[in-house]
Design goal:
84 residues; single chain
Length: 84
């Protein structure tokens, strides 16, 4: 049976600020500043697109409710309303 302790490399459990800095420097040397900056830009664009999609869908749901003039209806059978 594998446990988290067996799967996780030992250096990750003890990585302090100096260890994280060393990892960041190694990643920077391997990939270069331009590639990492481009990746972060793409991540930012993805987050912005996600937020815009959530906002648009929320506005669409609100506008559908306003157009029909109905709010959400309770469709629970009358015998079960006391149990809810």
């Amino acid at each position: 049976m594998l446990t988290t302790y067996m799967v996780t490399p030992l250096f990750i459990n003890n990585a302090g600020p100096w260890g994280l800095l060393l990892i960041a420097v190694v990643v920077l040397v391997l990939f270069g500043r331009g590639k990492i900056a481009g990746l972060m830009g793409e991540v930012g664009k993805g987050i912005t697109a996600f937020k815009r999609g959530v906002k648009d869908s929320t506005e669409e749901l609100e506008s559908k409710t306003d157009e029909t003039g109905e709010d959400a209806r309770d469709v629970t059978p009358s015998r079960d309303r006391d149990n809810a």
